[in-house]
Write the structure tokens for this entry.
Amino acid sequence: MCGIVGIISGSEVSNEIYESLLCLQHRGQDSAGIGTYSGKFHIKKGHGLVREVFGRKDIGYLAGNMGIGQVRYPTIGGASIDDLQPFRVSSPYGIMMAHNGNIFNFWQLKEELFQKDLRMVNSNNDLEVILNVFAYELSRFKLDDFFDSICEAVKSVHTRVKGAYSVVGMIAGKGLIAFRDPHGIRPLVWGRRTVNGKTEHIFSSENTMFAITGFDFYRDVAPGELVFVDLNGEVHTRRITEKEFHPCIFEYVYFARVDATLNGVNVYKSRLYMGENLGKKINRLFPNLEIDLVVPAPQSATTAALSCAHELGVRYSESIVKNVYIGRSFIMPGQEQRRRANTYKLSAIEVEIRGKNILVVDDSIVRGTVSKHIVQMLRQNGAKKVYFASASPALKYPDLYGIDLPTQDEFVAYNRTEEQICEYIGADLLVYQDLEDLIEAVKRKNDHKFSKPHCAYFNGDYPTNDVTEEVLDEIEAIRKKERQEDKLKKQLETN
Ligand code: 5GP
Ligand code: MG
């Protein structure tokens, strides 16, 4: 998962791009990059958190009134410096891009670009493939109207590139572009502000930075739509490919920050409704269950746990504490690192827990590492009973659209019944949200702009209709190989 931003304004943008990336930090902590344009491109990227990558000098060096930025959490590609965004090509015009998403025909396109289009993709980052397809196609279209040409280039991206992607980019001497894949799987919001009578624009994965940068929410970029803001501030938009809108529901479950509103749906509200629906299910299935405390798995589950406690009429207690300075445990590549990170990241407040029946609410259960650890920790701190509830259904199917979910057999729900999962994590009871209740939570306010969100990791229904058994097998094989290489690398490092 990644976060992206693009700004075009009447003054220097690098500081605002930097501030925006700080507001997107939760979407990726692996690396960060900023590119700007002031008649020439400037770029700075590196590993680590936003505040570790950029210093005051960099912000000064990144000159220009147009810029893009990205925080990265890799789904394809390793942690090599060659794989960091943004990417840039010199021809045609000079183009720089950043994206959030995942391309599952990456290897095939990389080869095709090299053999047929005579273009070299140097990295293992899927954005470089999008950029090269776009650049190649743009170099073929020299239509009278420049916007028509970039529309043709995006159309070719939509047909050749398979997967999910939201993209921001800059074309030298021309302007800023933002576009979304045909199904709008990854989010992209658009904000505007007026400065000295001129309209300025921001495009970002989330609107979490709009208030602090003075932008007002304007609208979401539509699925399959291209927006182009030229250097004079003129806006051109076109829906290039019309397909059904299937935004990823996991944005609401886990990824997005609670103050974001994506595709018409406020993340905080949707999480409140998720907790409420979960509480209703627990009441319905286990009306006599004695629960003394509802405890969230910090911190992505706090909102759902709060409303779940309210629904159950049980006291809410934040008695599991997370050290936020360690970072998300998913960042650790191997299972062993992940397990170790969990043990020093979470602690429990014994005086709250001892002798109580606890219901832990988490947003999701992936490998079961976190849940198993929490159950164990609560028991060590004297809990009488530990019940576990997940605000989303069991994750079972690989994601191909930008979430780094594990290979299928790494899912704790793979080939296990709910009883077996409960046993695996060591809980006294396990309750999963039903998929229809999760969807209801996201759609309840009726502000949503889609009929069917993408939920393939829960139900195996891949919205792009091009995910065959073959594709899944191929992806599984690549991920397994990557995991193996990761493991070997780690072993070499520790030896
Ligand atoms: P597990 O230990 O079951 O593998 O992971 C479950 C935990 O991971 C949950 O607490 C959830 O908040 C978190 N989680 C779920 N999906 C993701 C993800 O894609 N990235 C990161 N960093 N954490 C995730
Ligand atoms: Mg969590």
Residues 469-494 form the longest helix (26 residues).
